[in-house]
Design goal:
- This protein is mostly helical and 70 residues long.
- The protein has a domain at 22-59.
- The protein has helices at 2-20, 22-60, 65-69.
Length: 70
């Protein structure tokens, strides 16, 4: 119950702050959205490279212990 009341209070304060400082909020979005897109793209590239590297390593590894002996 306390979490719900606290959450509602934070929502009200957040809306009040956004409406009170609308110009500053828009400036913040203008600066943060390109940064978030850059970081998201960087994470996607790293995840893709890691996935490709893992698939290449799994192809090069023998599938069982018997294959290692041959």
């Amino acid at each position: 119950m306390l979490a719900v009341i606290t959450g509602l209070a934070f929502i009200v304060l957040g809306l009040w702050g956004i409406l009170g400082w609308w110009a500053e909020f828009v400036k913040f979005l203008q600066g943060s959205v390109p940064f978030m897109l850059f970081v998201g793209g960087l994470l996607a590239v790293v995840a893709g490279v890691t996935s490709i590297r893992d698939s290449l390593e799994s192809r090069n590894m023998p599938e069982s212990e018997e294959d290692k002996k041959e």
